[in-house]
Amino acid sequence: MTRIVTETERLRLREWGEGDSDRFYDVMNTPAVMQWLGGVQEREKWDAAVERVLGFQRDHGHTFWLVERKEGGELLGFCGLKRVNAQGTAMTGEFEIGWRLRESAWGQGIAKEAAIATLDLAFDRFSAPHVVALTVKGNRGSWGLMKRLGMTRRPDLDFEDPRFGPELNPTIVYRIDAPEWPAARRRAIA
Known about the structure:
Elements: E1 4-7, E2 11-14, H1 20-28, H2 43-60, E3 64-69, E4 75-83, E5 95-101, H3 110-124, E6 130-136, H4 140-148, E7 152-153, E8 171-177, H5 181-189
């Protein structure tokens, strides 16, 4: 049995368990979902990414948790909190929120609902002084959600990620500080 981290009205965020990597890979490794993440991944690269995700849970007590629909248990994607591990940035080790949803879950407010729950955990349970979110300029859906969550665009923190080519660089950064979250949260759920 995997541990449930938190629940929202419609969603359950939980730790990864046996078989989850295969299920996630099968529904998430599509051209549309992976468009802004370096493209469809070979299985070996995916397995290495899952090991990093599990390592964050082990080492820090948080990670990009699986997101399931409470009713029926459908795997929708992930959302959670990890530490920045990208190369080429002074932000290594900072709290980072991230999300990735399967195509059938887009446009339903699921990412926002899961992200609000994650930011609640970041500031309440994990005492984060601030949280960053990373994306690329072309990923309007992602940075649009960052803005709706009350995060501020921080061009001074942008960086070049050597894992990606020019089409996915620079990495752009949004940030929210703990004292800003209560008011931002009220606006986000309004």
